[in-house]
């Protein structure tokens, strides 16, 4: 192949020939190409041009920061560790300025946020009410108007929050929402489906204040992958964003309406403003745990409520069927109060007051902490909560759940049903123990829960 050397430099011609080498092993990798002097000198400009071209199409960007999800945690000594994205063991982060101490961290698909004890906000981490952030800035998630390029590898202090002390931060796949100590809400990043609560689907690369409904006082914010929940001090839940599978709980019941015989619901695909989740209105919610396509919540009585997609049995109701409304799980935890819950991509993890941890749903890739050699391979999806830490208090096959009807006008019936289902579990526990004793005497095995 002849190349006009009057038009192209010798270095570029050499690079093209290397890329066309018949032996794939001898071809340069993408990183090696980007490190070439003729490319490296204008790499940032090229990345910005590519980001600008892609932003109009809103196609996902393949970030070089991480190819797989990354987990971020803090220890009791306020150290920050992360793993994933090719890191198989926890890596300690030592990049906060002046010895700042991490207080709260969260992670999105390819960006992180931390609040420090000094209340700084870094778009990567949050330290005492200050906030630091790092990761992909493709959708403007870092909150610095894309001034530092599309990928930020070191924590960046968000000066915007230096005079607005941060109380909490939450990251979705491509957006960030912050609650300040003064009760204000700010959001930025990808605006698709209205997940930012700004009455539009525009992307924003700097914090934008969210209008809160009159009379509502927000106590916490929780980002789903492409939606956001806002929990009020009175236990009500507001939401905005993508409501596919009814994962925000925004579908409206139509049972009993004219021309709509039987029970059903009217689907709301997405919503761009903070909207009351009526399906949870009868509960006083204390914890909300959004996942990719489903959500779990805990009410003031420590009961677990699930709704959304049930493809992998992640709702915990013994089946893999589609359910229109919310589901109240009152039996699987042996009458114990549920204190924490977290949802992933097709699975759910919950913890009870006595530090027992339960998991159910998609067990692939070790999601549930259940070893494949014990019957929990990637093809197995437990559709009921199973303990992964702690002892089993009862036979899980006999656990119950209550499907909550869409009509929200029967709170008194709800409490009576709940009690009638929960009470028999003391008897069930005694029967299980008796069966175990009989099995031991006769040298028979009792079916495990």
List the helices and strands and how they pair.
Blueprint: H1 10-19, H2 30-34, H3 37-40, H4 43-55, E1 70-74, E2 80-84, E3 87-93, E4 102-107, E5 111-116, E6 120-121, E7 125-127, E8 130-136, E9 151-157, E10 166-171, E11 175-180, E12 185-189, E13 204-209, E14 218-223, E15 227-232, E16 237-242, E17 252-253, E18 265-266, E19 270-276, E20 285-290, E21 294-299, E22 304-308, E23 327-329, E24 338-343, E25 347-352, E26 357-361, E27 386-389, E28 401-403, H5 411-422, H6 425-441
Parallel strand pairs: 6-8
Antiparallel strand pairs: 1-2, 2-3, 4-5, 4-7, 5-8, 7-8, 8-9, 10-11, 11-12, 12-13, 14-15, 15-16, 16-19, 17-18, 20-21, 21-22, 22-23, 23-28, 24-25, 25-26, 26-27
Any overview of this molecule?
- By secondary structure, the protein is α+β, with helices and mostly antiparallel strands.
- The chain is built from six helices and 28 strands.
- It is globular, with a radius of gyration of 25 Å.
- It has three domains: 10-55, no CATH class; 70-211, Methylamine Dehydrogenase, Chain H; 229-401, Regulator of chromosome condensation 1/beta-lactamase-inhibitor protein II (Methylamine Dehydrogenase, Chain H), CATH 2.130.10.
- Helices cover 14% and strands 32% of the residues.
- The strands form seven sheets. Strands 4, 5, 6, 7, 8 and 9 form a six-stranded mixed beta sheet that branches. It has a five-stranded antiparallel beta sheet with strand order 20-21-22-23-28, with helices on one face. A four-stranded antiparallel beta sheet has the order 10-11-12-13, with no helix packed on it.
- Mean pLDDT is 75; it is low at 56-69, 118-126, 255-263, 390-400, 406-432 and 438-449.
